[in-house]
Amino acid sequence: MRYRLFGRTGLRVSELFLGAMRLPDAPEARRIVDAYADAGGNVIDTASAYGDSESLLGEVLTRRDRFVLATKFTLSRDPGDPNAAGAHRKNLVASLDRSLRRLRTDHVDILWVHTWDPHTPVEETLRALDDLVRAGKIRYVGMSDMPAWTISRADAIAEWKGWTSPAGVQVPYSLVNRDIEREVLPMAEALGLTVAAWGVLDHGALTGSASTDRLSPAGERAAAALADVAGELGATPGQVAIAWSRAQSPAIHPLVGFRSHARVAEAVAALDVRLPDEALAALDAAAPFDAGPYADFVARSARDPHVMGDAEIVGRRAPTAQG
């Protein structure tokens, strides 16, 4: 396992993140965590909304300081209480305190805002997060499942105010769900943010380890292409799916969960799978991505000599429809 820096910080995080949304029973959960750690993995991601799974992680996490422990807040803790959800200070503090009790620790290394709360001013969320960093309850901050403009605005406000800036984003991403390539991924690359990509295996549907009934015709074509490339490379479809996500950007860290420790080694081995150009082309052909007419218009304008003049500009990559 190799390591990268978490966003614009000095925190070292492994190339593969372990998702703890659906841990099985305690003995197997312990084996999963141990197998991941023995392979060099150090980031484990859970959430207040994961309930018993978050508590189970706290039970089996015996090497606490060895890990970069991450959790999330925002989702409702009590549907009948309007203040038990959202990104406001009250819910933030209550959710974090509950997570710390479940995880049996006095701090988490990363706290993600789980999803966008359009009702809470981002300044309130950022200030509350910064207060908790200063109090020693969290170390780093991230944003999950939020529009690109809200994350970039939060980053600018935090820098302006001298508060703790977001260091990463967590978003869904797979061969059949490439929407982040429109704005979120280019934004993350431009701001130097780590991208924790969940759903890279489409919860097993792309790799045959779960029911494929919910796959669309496009998803079925993508799954078939993954299987074809895997056969040519002597890999598994899951390994190819992970390798594909990593090939799209050096900012991407696949976030993968396991029901069995036997699957950990397969996922870790995917980090050494290098997809040749023809394999990447075949996968893109099976699951083409259309950024949309507006993105195409913006990209063309940035290259149009009638807009930018005739001078050739070097030193930065030419813009594409994906940024």
Folded structure, characterized:
It is a single chain. The protein is of the alpha/beta class. It has 2 domains: 3-275, NADP-dependent oxidoreductase domain (TIM Barrel, Alpha-Beta Barrel); 290-323, no CATH class. 41% of the residues lie in helices and 15% in strands. The chain has 12 helices and 10 strands. The strands form 2 sheets. The protein has an 8-stranded parallel beta barrel with strand order 3-4-5-6-7-8-9-10, surrounded by 5 helices. A two-stranded antiparallel ribbon has the order 1-2. Helix 6 (184-191) links the parallel strand 8 (166-172) and strand 9. It is globular. It starts with a strand and ends in a 15-residue tail after the last helix. The mean pLDDT is 93.
Keywords:
two-stranded antiparallel ribbon; TIM Barrel; oxidoreductase; Aldo/keto reductase; alpha/beta; 10 strands; globular; 323 residues; 2 domains
- State the helical fraction: 40-55%
With strands numbered from the N-terminus, the spatial order across the biggest sheet is 3-4-5-6-7-8-9-10
CATH architectural designation of the largest domain: Alpha-Beta Barrel
Q: Give the C-alpha Rg.
A: 20 Å
**What is the count of β-strands?**
10
Please identify which CATH superfamily of the largest domain we are dealing with.
NADP-dependent oxidoreductase domain
Shape descriptor reads: globular
What is the total number of structural domains?
2
CATH domain class name of the largest domain: Alpha Beta
Strand content: 15-25%
pLDDT averaged over residues:
93
Regions with pLDDT < 50 over 5+ consecutive residues?
Answer: none
Would you tell me which CATH topology of the largest domain applies?
TIM Barrel
Termini Cα gap? 29 Å
Which structural class is indicated by helix and strand composition? alpha/beta
- The secondary-structure element order is EEEHEHEHEHEHEHEHHEHHHH
Number of alpha- plus pi-helical segments = 12
Largest sheet: 8 strands, parallel, barrel
